[in-house]
Amino acid sequence: MEEQLTTSEISAVPHSVTESAKRSLTHLEAVQTNFFDFLSLSSDPDVLSQMPPLQRAHALLLLAKTITTLFTLKLRCNGVDPDEHPVKSEVERLSLYQNKLERFVGMSKAPIRPSTSLNFEAATRFIQHSLPDLSQEQKRRMIAIGKEKKKNKNKRKFESSEKRSVKTAAKEFLEKAALELLGSDNEGKIKGPLQLKKGSD
């Protein structure tokens, strides 16, 4: 008689529902085996310490979401509405953490912007006043270099999407200023605003 009830119960359930239940059971078994492997890896402090911080946070969030989802599924199977259960606050909390993590991932992929920019005119004035023995021609060249850099900087905003670092810009500026001040025949022999006078002993 029990076999007849079982057979009649089976015939009352549509075939598509039983197939869906079998597929769900197969997927749950796969989740169970993979979940225990993942759980053992994520609970190992050595593995966690070797992961980059964002990857570690992503792994721990995934673990928490998996546990919460499985618990919510268990509640639904037992006929309990998860929206009326305290697990709802955990789901909302995990959603907040996921938004935070996505924001940090976005920040890590964003292009690095320089924290400071170089004011070429101010740098020119600073260098000009730190070198007291400049001739009027050298001072004029120094001012022209500063103005030229400012014009080039404005052009570069539209021409190139890459921004140079402040260190590179300062190095190029100083090299060009040294070339203008010391001349091209110096070749790094004399440092500073001094030049050798030809013909004097």
Automatic annotation (TrEMBL):
Entry-linked InterPro entries: Exosome-assoc_fac/DNA_repair (IPR011082), Sas10/Utp3/C1D (IPR007146)
Major site of localization recorded for this protein: cytoplasm
Localisation: Cytoplasm; Nucleus, Nucleolus; Nucleus
Keyword annotations of the record: Cytoplasm, DNA-binding, Nucleus, RNA-binding, rRNA processing
A cellular component term, taken from the record's GO annotations: cytoplasm
One Pfam short name: Sas10_Utp3
Record flagged with keyword RNA-binding: yes
Single GO molecular function: DNA binding
BP-aspect Gene Ontology terms: maturation of 5.8S rRNA; regulation of gene expression
Subunit structure: Monomer and homodimer.
General function of this protein: Plays a role in the recruitment of the exosome to pre-rRNA to mediate the 3'-5' end processing of the 5.8S rRNA.
Entry similarity comment: Belongs to the C1D family.
Name listed for the protein in its UniProt record: Nuclear nucleic acid-binding protein C1D
Organism this protein belongs to: Cannabis sativa
